[in-house]
Amino acid sequence: MSRLQVVSGKGGTGKTTVAAALALALATEGRRTLLVEVEGRQGIAQLFETEALPYEERKIAVAPGGGEVFALAIDPELALLDYLQMFYKLGGAGRALKKLGAIDFATTIAPGLRDVLLTGKACEAVRRKDKQGRFAYDYVVMDAPPTGRLTRFLNVNDEVAGLARIGPIHNQAQAVMRVLKSSETAVHMVTLLEEMPVQETADGIAELHAARLPTGRIIVNMVRPALLDEPSLALVREGVPRTSVAKSLSAAGLGGARRGGGAERLVTPLLGQAGEYAARHALERDQRTVLAELGLPLHELPLFAEGMDLAGLFELATQLRRQGIS
């Protein structure tokens, strides 16, 4: 698999949860994974039930088989200070600029520079090696911005064109793009089986292709369990006789057999729920067809009705491994 795994999706699809589960899945059997957050929401810390992440790489979990997951919340201001020190050796002068507000000013008025810093930090982690010449991390997983901003965020070379055509900033952007547009990178889309997220996924993939950025997989998140099989769904669509349902309920001990008993009172709400389920099932089937036509590997993760916790995150990682993402 590609060493830089970028995860995006429409807001509300659970892309941060999927990115965290992917990092755990990739860290199995002794491997090291860095999970990177670029939006400043501290979503990773909440998922792993730990304190807010500082601007440093910190171990947050041990995966099955002894692998390790590290996390980093990238602060663009501090990343710019790193950049100034790396290329201009400003030292204390850089810290003085921060106190004067110049760093915040620079990253605010030049959003292209901000994206170079955020993506550049992740790409640096991908390329970094230890003294023995081994990669510091086997994989880097980036919890990227939502699909609506993704392509612009990743296509930093175009963003900095108006800022600098030569010099260190230009060279940094070129180095970042060499990683982002290579086989070292894969951009995954997280979606739900709903029309708007699926359409945004299709649009996002089209934009990535147009920008010549490498696509990876489509991960359908929060998939509801199947409650009715196909024969039962066919009966619901055709219209189940109320008397048959009432008799079945009575046979199961739900109310008496007499007219107006408990069984008959349950028929209307039960058939109503069955009809709603059949309609949703048809919609989800149609959305699966749309996703399949996009031509990327398709994976599904289950809905956790009680909400997501650390145990659930490990279960999602297991699901990803079973589906060949590891």
Write a concise synopsis of the structure shown.
The protein is α/β, with parallel strands linked by helices and 326 residues long.
Shape: elongated
Tally of separate helices: 14
Q: What's the gyration radius in Å?
A: 25 Å
Mean pLDDT: 84
Strands of the largest sheet, in order across it? 3-4-2-5-1-6-7-8
Ranges with pLDDT <50 over ≥5 residues?
A: none
Primary descriptors:
alpha/beta, 326 residues, single chain, 8-stranded mixed beta sheet, 51% helix, elongated
Give a description of the structure.
The protein is an alpha/beta fold and 326 residues long. It contains 14 helices and 8 strands. It has helices at residues 15-26, 43-47, 76-88, 92-99, 102-109, 111-127, 147-154, 156-159, 168-180, 195-210, 230-238, 242-251, 262-292, 310-322; strands at residues 4-9, 32-37, 58-62, 68-73, 139-143, 185-191, 215-223, 298-302. It has an 8-stranded mixed sheet, sandwiched between helices. Helix 10 links the parallel strand 6 and strand 7 (215-223). Helix 3 (76-88) packs across helix 6. The protein starts with a strand and ends with a helix.
Task: Explain the layout of strands and helices.
Elements: E1 4-9, H1 15-26, E2 32-37, H2 43-47, E3 58-62, E4 68-73, H3 76-88, H4 92-99, H5 102-109, H6 111-127, E5 139-143, H7 147-154, H8 156-159, H9 168-180, E6 185-191, H10 195-210, E7 215-223, H11 230-238, H12 242-251, H13 262-292, E8 298-302, H14 310-322
Parallel strand pairs: 1-5, 1-6, 2-4, 2-5, 6-7, 7-8
Antiparallel strand pairs: 3-4
